[in-house]
Sequence to fold (141 residues):
Amino acid sequence: MALPSELRLKKRSDFDRLRKPRAVFPSEYLILKCAESDEETTSKFGFAIPKRLWPAISADTARTSSSRKTKPGVSVNSVLRNRIRRILSEWVRCNIAEFPVGLLLLIVVKRLPEKRSELSAALRDDMAQLARKAMSELESR
Fold:
C-alpha cells in the first residue's frame, strides 16, 4: 500500500524549502533532510532516488533480483528505482508514529548494498536506524 497522498511532498515550494534544511542526517545508504512545515497537523515525506546510482548495475544483474519481467521499452533502472521508493514508502507508512508533526522530510538514497538480494532488508534497517538517530536529535533541539 502506498503512502497516503496527504503525507507526500508534492509542492515545489516544499522541495525548495528542503534545499536549505534545518537538519541533515546521513547513514550508510540514505540521507534524511528535515525542514519546518507550514502545517502543524502532519509531517510530509518525499523520496529522491538519483539515476547516477545505476551505471554499475547491468540489466542481467537487475533482472536476476526480480522474478518479474519488464515490458519492452521500460528501463530496468526505473523498475529498481520504483522498487526502492515502494520499500521506503512502506516503511514510512508503517512507522509514521515515530515522526513528530510539522516537518518536511526528504529521504535521499546515496548508495545501494552490493548484493541486490539484501536491498529490501538493508534499506529498512538503515531507515530504522536513521529515524531513531534523527528523532532523538530533533527532540533535543
